[in-house]
Design a protein that fits this description.
The chain is an alpha/beta fold. It folds into two domains: 238 residues, Type I PLP-dependent aspartate aminotransferase-like (Major domain) (Aspartate Aminotransferase, domain 2, 3-Layer(aba) Sandwich); 123 residues, Aspartate Aminotransferase, domain 1 (Alpha-Beta Complex). The protein is 40% helix and 14% strand. The chain contains twelve helices and 13 strands. The strands form four sheets. It has a seven-stranded mixed sheet, sandwiched between helices. A two-stranded antiparallel ribbon has the order 6-7. A two-stranded antiparallel sheet has the order 10-11. Helix 4 links the parallel strand 2 and strand 3. Helix 1 packs across helix 8, helix 2 packs parallel to helix 8 and helix 3 packs across helix 4. The longest helix is centred in the last third of the chain and has 22 residues. The chain is globular, with a radius of gyration of 21 Å. The two termini are 25 Å apart.
Amino acid sequence: MPVPLLDLKPQYASIRTEVLARLGAVFESQHFILGEEVRLLEEEIAEYCAVRFAVGCGSGSDALILALRALGIGRGDRVLTTPYSFFATAGSIALCGATPLFADVDPATFNLDPDQVAAALDRHDNVRAIIAVHLYGGCADMGTIAAAAKKRGIPIIEDAAQAIGAEYLGRRAGGLGQIACFSFFPSKNLGGFGDGGMLTTNDPALADKLRALRMHGSSTKYVHDVVGYNSRLDAIQAAVLRVKLPHLDEWTNRRQQNAARYRRLFQERGTPIAVPREARYQSRHVYNQFVIRGDRRDELRDHLKSEGIGTEVYYPIPLHLQPCFAELGYRPGDLPQSEVLARESLALPVHPDLSHGDVESVVSAVHAFYLPDGT
C-alpha cells in the first residue's frame, strides 16, 4: 500500500461530525471575520502556549511581518536569522524593508547555532532583532541565544510555525521570546482548512500593536494610527481549529511514537543514515517533520517514490543562496552546514495516522536502497 507523506483524510473522518456542526453554527451566525470564534481560539491558544495574549492573523507568513512591524523593524535595520528555513522567515524581513543577516545552523538540530549567532552579532552592527526558528517541531537553543540577544538589547521573534506545543526545558514555544509566530497551514500539526496564523506574547503593549496592525493599523474604527495590513483570521478557520485543538496532544503523541519507532528500526537494521536526535533542551519535540540525512538523497527519493512512499525536501536551496537575495553578497560555502543539509535532508512520513506497518515499510525501503544485499 502507498505511504503518503501526509494524509489528512483519516483525521477529518474522526472529527467530521463536530467540525460540520461548528461550521454550521458559523454559517448561521453569518459572522465570518474575527468575532467570537476567533476570540475564543485566541484565549485557548494563549492558555495552551502558557502566555498572556494571542492574536489571530491571516497566515504564519503574515504573523512574521506583523511581529517585525510591532517591534519597529524597518528600512536600514538588520535582522539575524537562519538560512535553513521556509522562505517566509527571511522574506518577511525584506518585506519590512530590513536586511536579512544569516548565521549558520547546528546540523544536529537543524536550528540556529548559538555560537554562530554570537559571532554574527559581534561582526555586524545595527542588528535590531533575531528570528529564531523552531524547525521541524524542535525548539532552538533559546537560553543561549537569548543570553546573546539580551547582552545587546535585541528582541527575539520565535518562528514557531512548525512547533506548536514544543518545549524548551519545559517551557512552551510561544513564550520564549518577545513575540512568537504560528502557522495553521493545513499541513501543520494544528492545521486549518486554509491559511491562518497566530501571534503570542506576554507584553500587553505588543499585543495591542499586533491587533491594530492586523486591522490596517486601526484600534478605533476608521482611525489609523499607523499603516497596517488586512490580516484577520476568519471565523471558519477559528471554528475548525477550536475543534482540532483538544486533539492536538494525542496527535502529537502519535507523531512522537512514530519518530521513536523510526529511530529504533533504523538502529536495529544498521541503516547508514543520520536520524534526528532530540537535544537535551528539547524537552518536547512535536515532529512536524521527521528528517533524515544521507548521501545520494535525490536517488533515495526517486527510489522511495517508486515504492509508493511520499517524501519532501525541506529545503533544497538555503535562503542565503536564493536568487532574490543575491545582492546580499553570500556565496556557496559561506554557511556550510546549511548547504550540506540542503543537499542531504529528506522528510519521511510521520503524521499521526501512520500504522506500525507503514513505518516498517518506509524503513525497509530506505534500508534496501543503501544496503540492497540485505546486510
